[in-house]
Design a protein that fits this description.
With 79 residues, the protein is mainly alpha-helical. The chain contains 1 helix and 2 strands; from the N terminus they run ββα.
Amino acid sequence: MKIKIDDKEYDTDEMSKEAIAQIQAIQFTDTEITRCQLLLASLQTARNAYGRALKEILDGNEDTDDKSSVELPDNLTFD
């Protein structure tokens, strides 16, 4: 297998075990970065949905029997 780094091609069959281990570490981290990006996108989507639901509740001035207070952070913003 050949890989390209900075426009230079390398043959993995000629690489040391240490170099192969570095390639495997890069592949692992790339996979984890992608996984984390997908998780973040999912969490951002959920947060937006919760924000829209909260806005609908607040704009509708719905009365509820539950008068418990919830402390929200000062930096809570919705676009």
